[in-house]
Amino acid sequence: MTVPAFNSVAWFEFGTDQPEQVREFYGELFDWKYVLNTNTPGVTYHSVMTPGAPQPTGGVWESEGGFPDYAIFYVVVQDVAVTVERAEKLGAEVLMPPVTDSAGFTFARLRDTAGNHFGVFSAPAP
């Protein structure tokens, strides 16, 4: 995966209990394609391939009613744990502490001081 500059928005994600509708709507609207991602056992996740992109740029997480629907963006950072710690000091709430999937991506979700949900992630070393 080619990673954008640190501190750039580099991923988006939908969490939904209606994944087929989300995939169909955005697929029709923007010509997005989807690839099943099996990096996190027990999670049904489809990576989003946007037109012309050499790799996925987002995803659809099938919640199966386990949490409210959402759409968020992720910022690529050098160190997720350090960024989460910094965000907490600035008043953010940690919604999901850092987790690393089987492909080596580490990510976390937070709520900023205005109540907005966002994520941070880092890619595995090449």
Can you offer a commentary on this structure?
17% of the residues lie in helices and 40% in strands. With 126 residues, it is α+β, with helices and mostly antiparallel strands. It is globular and about 40 Å long. A hairpin with a 7-residue loop joins strand 2 and strand 3 (45-49). It has a single domain (8-122), classed as Roll (2,3-Dihydroxybiphenyl 1,2-Dioxygenase, domain 1), CATH 3.10.180.10. The longest helix has 12 residues, at 19-30. The protein has helices at residues 19-30, 80-89, and strands at residues 8-16, 33-37, 45-49, 58-62, 70-76, 93-100, 106-111, 117-122.
Q: Which band does the percent of strand residues land in?
A: 35-45%
Going across the biggest sheet, name each strand in turn: 2-3-4-1-5-8-7-6
Terminal Cα separation, in Å?
9 Å
Biggest sheet, open or closed, and with what strands and sense?
Answer: 8 strands, mixed
Structural class: alpha+beta
Net shape: globular
Furnish the topology, listing elements before pairings.
Elements: E1 8-16, H1 19-30, E2 33-37, E3 45-49, E4 58-62, E5 70-76, H2 80-89, E6 93-100, E7 106-111, E8 117-122
Parallel strand pairs: 1-4, 5-8
Antiparallel strand pairs: 1-5, 2-3, 3-4, 6-7, 7-8
